[in-house]
Amino acid sequence: MSVVAFDQREGWIWFDGELVPWQDAKLHVLSHGLHYGSSVFEGERAYDGTIFKSTEHSERFRHSAEIMDFEIPYSVAELDAAKALCVEKNGDPNVYVRPVAWRGSEMMAVAAQSATVHVAIGVWPWPSMFDMATKMKGIRLDLAEWRRPDPRTAPSSAKAAGLYMIATLSKHAAERKGYADALMLDWQGRVAECTGANVFFTRDGQLHTPIADCFLDGITRRTVIDLARSRGIETVEHRIMPDELSAFNECFICGTGAEVTPVSEIGPHRFQPGNISQTLVEDYSAAVRPQANAA
């Protein structure tokens, strides 16, 4: 199957305050964001034309930039409107939405206080990764060699581009071995997250998930905790060591891309996707499409 490169697609991208033809949305090769990682982004989805938790994503987008010591020159309301315009202009109501901000090319050194901050928003089709039957069989995860860093060594509460370098390395290694993704530990050897998704386990009717203090506390993660609470399912956030994994019954990952996806295997550990996983898969699907479910 022929794949169109992302810089050759048709459509519109919101770039520094205006819509431009997709292929004209360019930046210079000597941009600070490319060389020094001074870039933040968001991952969002539009369902039936509505971006799920758009404002919450815009707020985090601006907060990530503040952590990275720059300011996004658009308000939350302006970002929400720009994302909605981008979805509408591109004509597909079910798309992935990617806002990104970076320091430009005015300064090319470690320090870049005077570099212009640019913002762009692109959208493209990205259907659910798995149909329900495939999803409920569970995906297989490798155990990554790279670890999430000590939060004193990296801005772990920001959705910053540079933090995903080790995620790419871990994902590539997992896929070469036939796994769908990899589970990453933190710098102390405790369970953290996957390369682009948070992880949950079940035991005795409760959800268990690592404390998000050295990796992103995902918006989907918080949504899952709220959905579980509405079902009377308690979520316990605590330190989880790898040798504890065999004591859990079910496992699933969650994120904008993965949505809620059960797991059947993490290295030598096996899980059986069950009622709690299926309930939260279905509840999340209903939450992102409230109008369809109200009809």
CATH top level label of the largest domain:
Alpha Beta
| Number of helices, where a helix is a run of at least 4 consecutive DSSP H or I residues | 8
**Unreliable residue runs:** none
Distance between the termini: 37 Å
Which CATH-level-2 architecture of the largest domain?
Alpha-Beta Barrel
Q: Which H/E pattern describes the elements?
A: EEHEEEHHEEHEHEEEEHEEEEHH
Strand tally is 16
Oligomeric state, counting identical vs distinct chains: single chain
Query: What kind of sheet is the major sheet?
Result: 9 strands, mixed
Question: Structural class from helices and strands?
Answer: alpha+beta
Alpha-carbon Rg, integer: 19 Å
In CATH terms, the superfamily of the largest domain is: D-amino Acid Aminotransferase, subunit A, domain 2
Give the domain tally.
2
Find the CATH topology of the largest domain.
Answer: D-amino Acid Aminotransferase, Chain A, domain 2
Please tell me the overall pLDDT: 95
- The amount of beta strand, in percent, is 25-35%
The geometry reads as globular
- Percent helix, as a range, is 25-40%
